[in-house]
Structures are given as structure tokens and as C-alpha cells.
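Annex B. Sample input.
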Amino acid sequence: MDEKLKKLAVKVEGLIKAFSTPQETYDSLTELARKQKEYFMYLGEVNFVKLAICIYSLKETKRFDLADKLMDNLMFAELVSTENNQYSYTCDECGGDGYTDCGECDGRGKVECNNCEGKGEITCTECDGDGRQMGDGEWEDCESCDGEGETQCEYCDGEGDIECEYCDGNQQVQCDSCDGEGEIDSDTDVVYSTFTIVTWNKDIQNTCELKEGLVEPAMSEYDFDRLRDEYITLFFEDTMHGPLNIVENEMYCVDYGDEPQLAFTSSMHVDLRFKRNNANHLFHT
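Annex B, continued. Sample output.
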């Protein structure tokens, strides 16, 4: 093992507070790396992973023998699994709000008063719009309209508009496309998770090597969880989606090797550098 990594592990191990498992040690080192990105990025991705293993060994045994044993044959793999939950995408009609502008009032909340046709006034019924009435043998200004021939519309109080009954004046109505949810379930795509792991366990390595790139599970999620102390999940993503055609709660190996192209993510986790959509062969055709 690189002597520089040993010296760095001794220097850093006091800053690592959670270390009961290799995973916990790696996650703690990642938190530290976020505060000193430039240094750890310079260290490199593979050495970063090895450093986590060195620190775990030092914390657990006060020696590096365990680290030497774990790092003899480190292998990296990308695994895919799904619970077959439908992928939901943002509704284009409402932009995810769940509501759209009312089509009856064009989002105004009001519509033109039919009684006065939007004028706010109607023909005076007392003088039939003439503005005059006969009184004491001569024409006088109509008392109801003060000689104007029109009176204020009682339906809209002279505004010319009334509250839109379709949206109750709220200007928006529930989106028909998504029923107000803001999202629509895809007819084809399901959500799936990807795991970038490093492992020293021979059983995991053997099954990943045999099942890499096949439409055949490498292991069950139960077994994957049962062996959680035999690998480190370097990066996890649960927002991928596609028309998967695989058994739920099973793990499929889509990439495997001892010299992967790795990169730090923005959160200082380690992931595959040139991450292609290796799950394509698991999709419906």
C-alpha cells in the first residue's frame, strides 16, 4: 500500500467521527472533503476510496493489515434496481402548478355583464331612454336617470363586469390534464436506482462478473442489503427513469471492472466519469 496514503490516514483519522462500518467511514470522509475540495480532488478518486478504507482499518484495528487485505482485489460495479413505481413528469399544460388560467374569463376573474353588455349602464325603463317625462303638461328630465336616458346596471353595479362563475373569480381553474396534481404518470417509464459501488467481497465480484450486461439479476435487494458491510456505495441516484423490463427488487449489474473511469460529483462522492446509460439493455424494445 502507498506509504503516502498511510501517512495521510494517520493525519486525517482523528477528524473522522463516524467509522463503525466502511460505508460510514467513507461518508464521513466525504463530508470532510466537501470542506477541502481542492486538496481531495487533487488526491484523485481511486486514492480517495483507498484512503477511506485505510482510515477504517486504522480506526478498527490500529493497523493497516485489514486495509491491505480489503484492497488486494478492489472491484467497481454499477448496479440497477427498481420498485416499479411509475415515473411522474411535470404537466406541460400547467407547468406543475396544478392550475391553469380560466378559459371563460381569460384569467381575469371577471366576465362581461350580459345585462349591460359591458357598458355598466342600461336604457332607463322609466323614460325608455328618452331622458324626458311628461309632467304638469310639459316635458321634464326623467327623475330616474336625471335626463341621461340610462341608469346604472344593477347586475354589475355599473362595473360592466361580473365575477366569473366558472372560476369563482379566482382567475384559475384546476388543470384538466393532470387533475390538479401538477404531474402526470408516464405510461411507459418507471423510476429506477443506480448504485456505484466498490467491493472486496468475492461472492459479489463473481456474480457481477458473470451477470454484467445481462437481463438477469446478479442478486436480490435482500442479499445486497445483507452484504452491506462488504462494499461501499460510492454514489447513489434514485431519480433515473425509463421503460424498464426487469423484476422489481432485484439487482442487475450493468458495469463491472477494476479500472473504471471515476470522477468526483459536486457533493464529493465518487461516480463513474463517462457514465453512459448502461441500463439500455434492460429497457422495453
